[in-house]
Amino acid sequence: MDYRSEAAEEEVRNQAAENVQQLGQVSVPGMESNIFCLTIIGQVEGHMILPPQNKTTKYEHLIPMLIAAEQNAKIEGILIILNTVGGDVEAGLAIAEMIATLSKPTCTLVLGGGHSIGVPIAVSANYSIIAESATMTIHPIRMTGLVIGVAQTFEYLDKMQERVNRFIVRHSRISEEKLKDLMYRTGDVPRDIGATVPGPEAVEFGLIHRVGGISDALTELNRMIQDQRTMQQGAPIQ
Is 0.85 topped by the overall pTM? Predict the structure, then answer.
């Protein structure tokens, strides 16, 4: 009896069972790619741990992943898939800043929704795409829990809002006036101020570059990768 072959077969069965449990399929397509795919789904979890029933993306997990992708010579481009309701403001802004400062070509694709702090993440890449059925909710920063209503609290919120607005305007084609108009609009978001912007309107307002899907995102990312290869090959040697 060959115990090694039995052990190998047992490992294959265990892997298949895990794939069914985790992914709902027996086999997982395997291939080496020069594009790293990063997903930001659910709620962006920051300094506070959210309840276990919440679908979250932890920013402390994304930061080392982005650093590893930046340092990996085999990875030439990064695709960020977004379907988020928002979350921690500082954590979301930190993720957006990291994406914006990567040296490799980046492309964001908004599927479903890129709401709240998901907006600066969506515009942080070199190129941004949104599905026609997707939406983006733009509203002022909120605070939850007990807040002491003093002048310092409002000043803190105002400065944080300025940071978010400045980032969005700097990394997209929307004007600050239009952004604030959407942010403080009344009658659009139930029982609140703000605006829910469908995909085509997000492009019209200059938030996102174009409406499209996964094939469009990959096409655009591969184009940027090829442009960077050409630049590196043509760069003068010092």
Answer: no
| pLDDT tens digit sequence for 96-124 | 999 999 999 999 999 999 999 999 999 99
In a domain, 122, yes or no: yes
Helices 176-183 + 151-170 axis angle, to 10: 130
139 is catalytic: yes
Check 115, 128, 139, 209 and give the catalytic one.
139
Active-site residue identified among 116, 124, 128, 172: 116
Question: Could you tell me the residue range of the domain that residue 180 belongs to?
Answer: 36-41+56-231
User: What digits encode the pLDDT tens for the residues 27-55?
Assistant: 555 667 899 999 999 999 988 888 888 88
**What is the full DSSP assignment across 65-79?**
HHHHHHH-TT--EEE
Total domain count for the chain?
Answer: 1
Extract the tokens encoding 103.
Answer: 């040296």
